[in-house]
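Sorry to interrupt, but I need a hand with the structure work. Please put the record directly below this note.
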Amino acid sequence: MVRNQQKTAEQGAATTILLATSPLLDGVSGRYFNDNQEAEVTDHRPEDLTVFSTKVANYALDEDNADRLWQISERALD
């Protein structure tokens, strides 16, 4: 996708529909996808920010981080 170009409604929905309906992804959870592709895990911010949306930081997949965020969120609602 060209920088500053918006997606159509169909393009925006495509990944969500793929993830919700594809039998190839049954049981797949806790991963990041963009434009119908699984995001590449990276340990640093890409210098070329046009590919930033195709990557996911390794800390975003850390289960301890997820648990900690969940606990903070619960406390915020009390």
